[in-house]
Amino acid sequence: MFDLRNIEFNNTPNGDVEVRPFGEPVFTLSEKHIAFIDALLDYTAEFYPECYTALSEEYTRFSLNRLNYRFRMARRLLRCNFGEFDSIMDIDHNGAFNFEEVKCPRIGECKYHNIICNPQFNSHLTPREFEIMELLYSGYKTTDIADSLIISIKTVEKHKDNTLRKLNLHSLSDFFLHATKYNLFKKK
Fold first, then answer.
1. Does the CA dihedral 65-66-72-73 come out positive or negative?
2. Strands 17-21 and 7-11
3. What pLDDT is attached to residue 188?
4. Is 179:139 a contact under the CB 8 Å cutoff?
5. Residues contacting residue 67 through CB under 8 Å, at least 6 positions apart
6. Among the listed residues 41, 44, 46, the one whose alpha carbon sits nearest the alpha carbon of residue 66
7. What is the signed CA dihedral for 156, 161, 164, 167, rounded to 10 degrees?
8. What is the model's pTM?
């Protein structure tokens, strides 16, 4: 799995996307970068589902060639949301996307404006994320939750991290305050 953190992107004049992972060599995105493309699109599907659906529909005619299909989706996502080589990491140390206003001649007339470019973050918790966070809020330890739900500790941690990201919170303590303030686990 590719680590989606500390990455800067640059759009080249000929339509390519340069990927600059911090401390690693720059590469020009191509179909052969399967691990990076899969990580990028999986993240997009989870946290920007409307964008992912639009990309899937836009490139469906290429879907018989899976590598080319996913490459085109990833390149479009990157070209429409990133591309200025600057001092702000496009994907930061926490894995959050920092979208840029890309100079596009079709802004305002593209049917995917504010869908593929500048997509909306999905802050809705899945039923499993809600269940795990309720158990954590109730005082259960990660290991106990993993055992009772028959999942790995890493899966519990992933759900917790995804929940914090979706709610723009930084710690479990922040989540507990949020849950109390908004009465998330109010019993009927």
1. positive
2. antiparallel
3. 38
4. no
5. 31, 34
6. 41
7. -100
8. 0.76
